[in-house]
Write a structure and sequence with these properties.
The protein is 54% helix and 11% strand. The relative contact order is 0.18. The chain contains seven helices and two strands, in the order ααββααααα. The protein has 149 residues and is mainly α. The protein is globular and about 50 Å long. Strands 1-2 form a two-stranded antiparallel ribbon.
């Protein structure tokens, strides 16, 4: 069952507002870890090389379903903070159209201060996951715009 997602700008603003409630980064990290613990179960059959995101220090898997009108993402990681970062990305991008995904940068990352509070390896991993999400959106859009033969 697909749940309706809020508009992408609203989803980003909700995250910004949510993280503004925490007074320091230890609380924000704890919140990230808690969010990661509540990721939807990831299918064991998709814990394979085709779904593994390269460039992450932790093991990360990401899969997408749907089409250009709405893509649903699932992801998991063996790292607690990375799982939380995945939860943030999924809250923003899952359920959105491919065109919206491609047109919307993750402004919430800088707005909540993640860019300056993550290690270089976690920033690289976050960028790798974002690249994979955008690749799924590009592929869905390309499939939708192909002319029937």
């Amino acid at each position: 069952m697909t749940v309706s997602s809020p508009p992408i700008d609203q989803a980003q603003q909700e995250l910004i507002d949510e993280f503004a409630l925490f007074s320091d980064w230890s609380e924000r990290y704890q919140h990230l870890i808690d969010l990661g613990r509540h990721l939807a179960p990831y299918p064991d059959a998709r814990r394979d090389d085709a779904h593994r995101v390269q460039g992450c220090q932790s093991q990360v898997w990401l899969c997408a379903e749907g089409d250009a009108s709405a893509l649903e993402f699932r992801a998991t990681s063996d790292g607690a903070i990375v799982a939380g970062l995945l939860a943030l990305l999924l809250r923003v991008y899952s359920g959105q159209s491919a065109q919206t995904i491609l047109a919307t940068p993750p402004a919430f990352i800088e707005a909540i201060g993640l860019g300056s509070h993550l290690s270089m390896t976690r920033r690289n991993g976050l960028a790798a996951v974002l690249t994979r999400i955008r690749a799924h959106a590009s592929a869905a859009l390309a499939t939708a715009t192909e002319l029937p033969r």
